[in-house]
């Protein structure tokens, strides 16, 4: 056993880029039976971030599960990123996490102390979220993986979905994108320690604060940006709402150097999977570079929230978000349905 093994050397893909491609997943899910229950308000057929089940007239439970292989070598940091990513789905649905259970796959070649550090990192973000850990499940596996099953609660009227965007809404993105590309560059040992820290800090930032900042404001639709990319999650919002989303490429917050690495061809496999699935649903206008298109298709790990809201509420929201981040920006708007779901300008 060794404490010197880098976690990322034990994986082929990392973070949300390790997810099964959307085309394959869709082909499987569409042939599965749909369960009917009047209390199931949001299920997997909605392509939303979590399921929502009504337990009483004034309370719903929000449940999600998410885990993946490491995108960083430090075990504690890996635990933080994985937990932050799993907790995010509850915030995206308008709820607050309450209960978490661990999911851990762990190789026999690693010391138990590394397992401890992964879990400890996850616990730190669960505690920050105000939730509790109540157990979990572990298996032996040559590829390390960690994540959570998370349950949260909300009032039925507080639930947000990704399918209620309104014509005239603007879109706010709360974190910069390019995480998948930068993590790929890091696996190739191209990043400085300072750059790795910058990317890590973005991934471990809880969307708790982005959710708290829209209290009292009108939010018509919400999702978090993860492995399906900004275009992919935007497509789910647009198609579910029967609208078209126009993204303004010059307004989208990017992690510095993401465009440069994309231009060099340092791209995760998940980007190509996203492109194959989404190539017929979006159009890029003149002036938008190939590398920008690649970044927009980049699978994010523990990305920010994408909110569809009236412009006046968005301006107030951005003012509140200045307390937490300089990155939150208006990145597009919602129009009536056009020939395609996504247009990049």
UniProtKB/TrEMBL annotation:
GO molecular function, one term: selenide, water dikinase activity
Coiled coil: none
Keywords assigned by UniProt, alphabetized: ATP-binding, Kinase, Magnesium, Metal-binding, Nucleotide-binding, Selenium, Transferase
Domain spans labelled PurM-like C-terminal: 166-344
Enzyme class: transferase
Residues holding Mg(2+): 49, 89, 224
Location of the active site: 16
Cofactor(s) named in the record: Mg(2+)
Domain of life of the organism encoding this protein: Bacteria
Annotated binding of ATP, by residue: 19, 46-48, 66, 89, 136-138
Protein name per UniProt: Selenide, water dikinase
Organism in which the protein naturally occurs: Clostridium hominis
Source taxonomy: Bacteria, Bacillati, Bacillota, Clostridia, Eubacteriales
Gene: selD
């Amino acid at each position: 056993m060794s404490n010197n093994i880098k976690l990322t050397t034990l994986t082929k893909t990392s973070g949300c880029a390790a997810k099964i491609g959307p085309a394959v997943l869709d082909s499987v899910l569409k042939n599965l039976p749909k369960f009917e229950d009047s209390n199931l308000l949001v299920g997997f057929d909605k392509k939303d971030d979590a399921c929502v089940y009504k337990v009483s007239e004034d309370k719903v439970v929000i449940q999600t599960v998410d885990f993946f292989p490491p995108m960083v070598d430090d075990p504690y940091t890996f635990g933080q990123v994985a937990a932050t990513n799993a907790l995010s789905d509850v915030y995206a649905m308008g709820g607050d996490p309450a209960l978490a259970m661990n999911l851990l796959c762990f190789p026999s070649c690693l010391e138990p102390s590394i397992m401890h550090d992964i879990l400890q990192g996850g616990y730190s973000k669960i505690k920050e979220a105000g939730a509790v850990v109540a157990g979990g499940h572990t298996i032996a596996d040559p590829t390390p993986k960690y994540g959570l099953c998370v349950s949260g609660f909300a009032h039925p009227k507080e639930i947000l979905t990704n399918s209620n965007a309104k014509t005239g809404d603007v879109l706010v993105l709360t974190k910069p994108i390019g995480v998948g590309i930068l993590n790929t560059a890091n696996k190739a040992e191209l990043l400085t320690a300072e750059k790795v820290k910058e990317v890590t800090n973005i991934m471990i930032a809880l969307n708790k604060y982005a959710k708290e900042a829209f209290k009292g404001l009108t939010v018509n639709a919400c999702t978090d940006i993860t492995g399906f990319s900004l275009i992919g999650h935007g497509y789910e919002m647009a198609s579910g709402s029967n609208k078209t989303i126009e993204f303004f490429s010059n307004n989208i917050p990017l992690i510095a150097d993401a465009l440069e690495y994309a231009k060099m061809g340092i791209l995760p496999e998940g980007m190509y999977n996203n492109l194959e699935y989404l190539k017929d649903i979006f159009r890029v206008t003149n002036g938008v570079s190939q590398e920008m298109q690649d970044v927009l298709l980049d699978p994010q790990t523990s990305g920010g929230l994408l909110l569809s809201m009236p412009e006046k509420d968005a301006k107030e929201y951005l003012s509140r978000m200045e307390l937490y981040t300089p990155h939150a920006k208006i990145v597009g708007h919602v129009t009536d349905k056009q020939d395609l779901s996504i247009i990049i300008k």
